[in-house]
Amino acid sequence: MVGVRSRCSSSHLGSTRRGHPNGPRREPGIDGIFAASDAVAAGVLEALREAGRSVPGDVGVVGFDDSAWAVRCVPALSTVRHAARLMGRRAAEIVIGQIEGAEVEPGGALLDTEVVWRASA
Question: Model pTM?
């Protein structure tokens, strides 16, 4: 694994940049990135910094989870907060219902989320 040098770094974040080694340089027209998790977004912040792109000046970055990563990053990470416990409970209810023979509604279950705006977007 490749380590990164940022206040929100972790050795597993190296894989974020390995997947797209020149991503921020290759696509200078990108002005926003929504990452699948706050940890991935932290790696995106580092990759953008190394590419000479400013956040949020050049590129806005938003993560997902509102985890501890979000407030440890510089700049603080905008993120999408979701009710993880409610999501787990609802998933368990659906699975138990299936086991008991209930029909599953098409489209799954929709739960509310909240955008938490911080300095990265």
Answer: 0.72
